[in-house]
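Self-study notes.
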Amino acid sequence: MGSYSNIFMDDVLTFPQPSFQLFQVFNTYGLMGNAALLHRYGFTELDNPYDIVNIDLDLVLEWSSSLFSGRHSRSRLSLWRKLGYSGCVSQNSEYFEISFDGNPQLELLILLYTVLLSEEDYMRLDLVLATSSNDGESTTAYSPKTGNFLLGEISEMSRDMLLTKSVCEALLSLADMRDSLYGTSSLDDDIKSLKKSNSITERKLYHSLVLRISERRIIKKLRTYTEESSNSLKGLHSRKRLKS
């Protein structure tokens, strides 16, 4: 009898040329979150580390419009785009991802920071962009008091500068708005419903609850992430006051 060889495939099964060997075939679904698994294959996995939560740009604009005028929201969004930023795009929808650990996408933090800029800093930053694009002159004299780092390349290392008190408050508001889309039942209610459901006889209900619970847990982690960032900011300000 011939020896076994292992072949791993993703979605499309391809076989080698016929030979005298016996091949053991494995199929993998790839590194997918539960939303993709449920949509493509009709099942989910408990505690899937590839799960994410999307926060639509429209939801961010709804939050902004609840605090500021429509003109303010549109102008800040325009400035954010002038700075070269955008969210993820799928089927004509723009959104931001929250990772399994509850970390918000960097572009979301930059947008929130931009929306919350003072009118003075917004005008100066907008002038910097307009001046630099028109004649290429040095724009140091026009740099805003805060937010001038937005003019450079922003990396993950810049998160601490972006996570101001106001941005943290915005993230918590967005977490509440996103969670409200699940209706009046709580996360604990959903967990109880999952325990009562049968993965065989109530397949659709079971897997939809797994996805729902996973997403709501990520939103909970986003709140924790934000609260910890806010507490770190308070501690930093307290140390500065003590030194002064």
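Second protein, same conventions, sequence then structure:
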Amino acid sequence: MEEEEFEERPSDRPEPIYLRPLVDIANAWSTGERPSDADIAVLAPLTTAIHLKDRDLSAGRTVPLGDGDVPWPAELKRLLAGVETDEVLASIETHCPQDGRNATARSIAGLRRIAAEIGVEVV
């Protein structure tokens, strides 16, 4: 097998390029591995984006944000307290194929409700 040849990076491109974690707290909750304060302390300063969804843990399924068992106000406050950027991209993952449109609308409403509760702005 031949080695691939890569183009050299243009000299005017700033160094270095960083990969940052995409935090998915609900996935941790769904596996029973709730993020510890130490986990959050490591991830928060690197966080620029987060996946938001919620889980009905007893049923083992995804539900609209704010309708499940993940304590989102507490988790977001904990994470955002250590974030070093002014904005965090929030990607809502609905994963409710039986009623995607309604679940998405409920998730957006849930995000707005949670944001208001913890004093952050949704833009």
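Instructor comment on the second fold: The longest strand covers residues 49-52.
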